[in-house]
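To whoever is on call:

I kicked off a structure prediction for a single chain this morning and the downstream step that reads the tokens threw a length-mismatch warning. I double-checked the sequence; it's 458 residues and nothing unusual in it as far as I can see. Pasting both halves so you can look.
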Amino acid sequence: MSMQFSSRLSLENAPIIKTKVPGPKSKQYLDIQDKLETSSRSYTSFFKFAVDYGKGSTIVDLDGNVFIDWFAGVSVLNLGHAHPAVMQALRGQVEKMTHITEVPTEARINYLKTLNSVLPGKMKDNSKILMTVTGADACEAAVSLARYNSKKPTIIAFTGSYHGIAGGIVGATSNYHYRDYAGFGSQNYVYAPYPYPYRFPGKTRAEDISKDVISRIEEMIRDPYSGVPPVGGIIVEPVQGEGGYIIPPDDFLPMLRETCDKHSIPLIIDEVQSGIGRTGKVWASEYQNVTPDIMCISKSIGGGIPFSSVAYRNDFDQIPKAFHLGTYRGNPLGLAAGAAVLDVVRDEKFLERVRSKGKYVLSRFEEIQRNSKIIGEARGRGFMIANEIVKNKVDKSPGTELAGMVRENMFQKGVLMHTCGHYGNAMRFMAPLTIEDDLLERGISIFEEAIKETEVGA
């Protein structure tokens, strides 16, 4: 099913702000939510409104305000809100069945065939699929697979990593605060530095960053006195998501693949946020032609339905029954949506538009950066782009509060844009891949206004 670029998916003339945000109806809902729901929520601290409906790359709140969505449910809605192909698949499936566990259905077989046909490199026609529910669940299962097949417990993760915070996988997520009350520590996880060119520690030359990282990993693996027990897997994001939309040097993944092959260590590539077309290819690892041994798939694969999967090498399938069970794994609605999403995203014309528009958006951000006092770096690939906000460009001190001001300014003007990064200071562009050109232009103009106004108030 090809994407029809001539058909408009979003509301026109957005943003349209009719009331001060939040408006009276939104305030009423927010008050009820505060009374009845946990205070541990975070996104209602950033986006204070109550939503009526979404259409394409636009969201309408209960007060009739229309927002441009550069948030996409944290990169979950790569096809935007209520995409026709996804809605058609969901309507068709909901009339048949909404739940069954493991047994084959038309939706399940269709998803398995479709996913297999778009797997990267040597994984195509040489993989098995394990059904999971969330990104954290997929990463948890992936680590278990690596440990089972290697018979070694230690997993190398990276600084800035985010692989989920539910269960033991919280140990692979680098922000230690998530482990404060989780009941799980970081046992059997160690961290290597992620090749983060803008903030890589020390005086390593840019062209040598990957070599530096790999040499540290090699030391962990080979040196019996490194303090690292035998390594049973390495888990990595091909483009770091929550860590700051960091694009590693092009030689990093190939070198990491080589190291894993040399030491017979399973390479787990986490494509939860970077996959499903987000970078302009179905999988971000395709840019370097690197094939993972195990791959984590979630977020946008379900088109908004909680759904995820793990793809792994056929020879890793020597696992016992009930290795990673769960009642809701492989939900029929997610399976139906997943096949529909992949049918759209796999289209080369669709992907070429993501690449070309992504280059254009990045060039506009780079232009704004050159004239800005607080944008230290604009970086990205496809529709996975960050603007790192700093207090000044000389010492690169993180502009965490400034980024929050930019986000709030944009929200009041009608554009949803969220932050990420080690210091929460990177403004990330993660709009739906289907966003129309006029909404891109208006959003960029509002971003530029918010940057200038924040600089004046700083």
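Update from on-call: the warning came from a stale cache, not from the record. Cleared it. Sanity check on the structure: The domain at 85-345 is CATH 3.40.640.10 (Aspartate Aminotransferase; domain 2).
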